Amino acid sequence: MTYMKIINYLKLTLTAVTLCLITVSAYAQEANENPLALLKEGNLRFVSSTPLHQHQDMARVDELKSGQQPFAVIVSCSDSRVSPEIIFDQGLGDLFSIRTAGNVMADFEEGSIEYAAEHLGSTLIVVLGHTSCGAVKAFMDIKHNPDHQHADHAEKLGHIESIVNKLNSEDEENEVFKTEGSDKYQKAIEANVIHGVKQLRESTPILSEKYNEGKIQIVGAIYHIESGEVEFLDL
Ligand SMILES: [Zn+2]
GO terms for biological process (predicted)? Predict the structure, then answer.
């Protein structure tokens, strides 16, 4: 390699490193200032089949050795089609994930969210339901068919019954059953998200205080498994 070639090579390397640092810095700044925009942009990349797959390499593993600062908490269903890092095109250290069937939350889940908000600096919490949710469907089937509530069936439900009972305890769900129409399933999915957002906004002492002081955002969204799109709800 000639002297000039070496100089040019070094110049190119320096430019690439500089661009990389600018990109990393811009990303970190946007994560701080507008974490919701990062999720929306990531979902757009996913839907348009142009994911960056950033933060999914050994460099990121190395970067995270000293700690994590996930910019968002995603409370989603355990459904294998609703993986937050994939549908939002994020990587290691970006999202703090809570997943249960039907994205229902009790003390363990709320404690995990509080930990992220209080100790990891997460400022955005998303309660993410999804179309064709099996947990909501199970709840609706039982609601429509009281025979399922017979002791024999309850035994077969096992611990799934706790999830169904949780959904049944939500006022928003019971309001859906007072209405008529063929879109009850979709409404029940939304009602569960609306309930989850309300539950977290009113959760004392940590989340409600942070939310009321404007230190964290708590939003609801529906993932459409047919299209890959995340629809953020106006709540
Ligand atoms: Zn589900």
Answer: carbon utilization
